[in-house]
Amino acid sequence: MFISFEGIDKSGKTTQAKLLADFLLEKNYPVVLTKEPGGTLPGEKIKGIILKESLITPLCELFLYLADRAQHVEKVIKPALKKGKIIISDRYADASLAYQGYGRGIPIEFIKKLNLEATGGIEPDITFLLDIEPERSFLREGKSDRIENENLRFYKRVREGYLEIAKLNPDRFIVIKADAHFLKVHQKVKSIILKEL
Fold it and tell me: What would the CATH number be for the domain defined by 2-196?
């Protein structure tokens, strides 16, 4: 099973991915917890460029994410799927549609074609979209990088993009309100996954 967590920055994806991985490991399920960008060693280097380099163009940003994704799929996701492991990824291909497509204005169909090349057509079985209004996510504490420093208008476009992607993929997406306490969100995620398992 392949599970991904999506949502705007500071929506709680990393927390929920880790909580779910810990829960399933306690139940003795074979789990691989990973992330994009940075799920591989080359990916960590790419992530450093994406989050720190200030002069990156939208198209350059997209290609860097795609390079990270291609490496991630080949070195982490494919081997884990072959071994029958449960993969939990903090972000995956939908993030490029939301951020570089809806957020930056790069044509969606163009990104879909490139995503197909980078992923080899591998899609998550379940994608949890942790939905929160940007005004609320901005109040959450944490370090800020180049992407997180974008303005409110950008994040509104990204959020609207995610909701549109979810609407177009109802068989895969589960939208959860992320402004609740993180343990309540975890309970919802956990109950859905237990039914699937």
Answer: 3.40.50.300
